[in-house]
Amino acid sequence: MLVIPALLVAVGALLPVAYLGVRATERGFDTVAEVLFRERTAALLGRSTALAVSVTVASIVIGVGLAWLTVRCRLPGGGVWAVVAALPLAIPTYVAGFAYISRFPSLAGFRGAWLVLTLYSYPYVYLPVAGALRGLDPAMEEASRSLGVGAWRTFTGVTLRQLRPAIAAGGLLVSLYVFSDFGAVSLMRFDAFTRVIYQSYQSSFDRTPAAILGALLVVVTVLIVVAEGRSRGRVRYSRTGKGTARRPAAVDLGRWRWPATLTVTGIAALTLGVPGVTLGIWLQRGISTGQSFADTGEAALGSLTAAGLGAVVTVAAAVPVALLAARYRSPLANAVERASYAGHALPGLVIALSLVFFATRYVDVLYQRLPLLVIAYFVLFLPLAVGAVHAAAVQAPPVLDDVARSLGSSPWRVLRTVTAPLTAPGVAAGAALVFLTCMKELPATLLLRPTGFDTLAVRVWEETGAGEYAAAAPPAALLVLVAAIPTWLLTRHGRDLT
Amino acid sequence: MTGSAVRVQGLVKSFGPPRRGAPATPVLRSVDLDVPSGSLIAVLGPSGCGKTTLLRLVAGFERADAGTVEVGDRLVEGPGVHVAPERRRVGVVPQEQALFPHLSVAANIGYGLPAAQRRAGRRVAELLELAELGGLGERMPHELSGGQQQRVAVARALAPAPSVVLLDEPFGGLDAALRIAIRHHVRAMLAATGATALLVTHDQEEALSVADRVAVMRAGEVVQEGTPAEVYGRPVDLGVATFVGEANLLPGRASDGFVDTAIGRLPVAIARERCDGEVTAVVRPEQVHVRPVENGTAIIEDRLFFGHDAMLRVRLGDGTALQARVTRRATMSPGERVEVSGEGPVVCFPQGASLGSDP
Fold this sequence. Notes:
By secondary structure, chain A is mainly α. Chain A contains 23 helices and no strands. Classes of the chains: A mainly alpha, B alpha+beta.
């Protein structure tokens, strides 16, 4: 009963990407070769790769350092730092980009893109490494010390080695994120893949080069995803014994305590302080010049509408996929669940682009209509919803159905009195998460929104691009508020797990 | 009693993807079983023998490939017949109990009752009393101890007065001390309601102590069915003999109703087959008697003390090792010389008989 809707959902999630390939090659392979092998494309690939590598390296340094300081060391302020270090993940890069470019216009270009992307994507390294550090059994380090190995060599030889899988996985996520980011590179006017694809799509009548570059970007991201999968395949639990590990004793930093605190505070000042202060200044300036908030209100309404529809559609589609995967382990169920993850890794811009091509060719009525935007949200955030619904479905194991049936309940009554009440909270939480993520989404919204339809994200991006910083501040402030909610939930959830 | 609460005949079930060339794995191959009304029968077998599958087929959670299941003289499973679980009047107590986590204890117990009866609350109160859970009706399942949860699961299954209650390894998750008390309690609950019960377990001690009758399953078949004393004292083959309780397997020569073994001449319990000549005799540890004798031909090798009694490992003069159960007062210790004798009656099988582990 579940298989058919689940299959339909999976096919729906894969279709736009598959069509991008068709659209990119329909002019023949000569055109493909011409676009791919020109100098400009090589330079573009070089620039994007340089950005990804430098951001990844910097993120690993900051992520691992902060993880060690917040998990293993005794800092003044205690547990607060663990939350503060994860918070930048919640701030969309276009909001951060707005904050930095409006205060420091000279940052435009590579330096600005590098700075913003590093500051706001290092949590992808920080979170898994901090988790791994928490789970690490101190007995291993003690064994190393008792064998006569010093503190520093124990750290590099035992601790760091145990963390390597987490660092690798986090680093690959960062590079994936850099390739797919649109907000930071476009506002910093750095010609990375997404910005070039967007410009090529906007400016020229012939959209084939945009399709070809989009397909190239897909290839790059798929390569990274494959590498990420491999690195994860090698991850082993760091403990082999039974029972739970002891909590390691916190390291006393001695006279290094204050420099360490200063470093942690400094990073927080850059990630949270700068946007906070900048937003405050521009808000205040807007109010003093009597700026109207009507635009922001209208954009907020647009965000609510699009994100609300997106959340409902995505979660409804996720239910059969997640139930199938949670209840019936089979190769088909696995394949369906994997397919639903297609949108996870692909840049939102590319998904949007392929939907534009698909709609203009086959379903013209949808082009620049709200349903197409909702479909994009569905493709992009289906994995998020499937994950949440899957976790919810585990709350109602099949054995409860069996018992309820044997007590005389029809399948319908079982659904109403057992399955639904047990899974509803998890499904609702998933819907909330998808809703908030839709609100923050920029590139797909930019490309697919109906003419004259504004959202908060689009307003921030357009006003910043036009240098109207006072007008960008109110929607940006609203988004920061909205964005803080899922991160708060996420860190709370993460703490429950550890 | 004459009627059967459950009658299973020729039940067959296979699982697994029928891959090209490879047949599906048979889990049940023609199982026959009769559960008399009002009795408690234990299906005993090692893990993977198909006992849980048998239970799921009786409950209606799976469909049979062949064979029939009757519950209270009504055909519920057979060629072209599959009655839905909710129409079978079969109660289930799963291994993990599976209480509804979002419902109170009283609501759990009342779940299977018709709405009017549930609202009246008399039946629920009755069962709470029976389960000795008076006053805990408004608690949530996670607020109960393991033993209390177990009793709620049983009370919930009994509430709609089903034709039979199926219990899947019901005492597996409980610690040893609690297990005995819960066994008594569950038996009392079943007896008080006059319920028929089919219990599935891999623990021979549990099966022998709790059940009125025991069915031993092996590799998808019921190999022996009888009272606990019959199954223990008259196993049909060496496999059953060694699975149900500990057994010493001694080679011997049988003739005229006696068997000569290394520990003497023992009477043979029953002539299963024409049991003459070279045989294997099954001697339970409690049938081996050991007494300390200076210059005895046997020697104590090891002693495991259990409190209520002790188990000795004895090496005979000819090298045969034996297990002997002795009272806790027997003070013999490793290294001591002893004399060993046996006590009949014992069961014999022709020598070379397989343990029956291969189908």
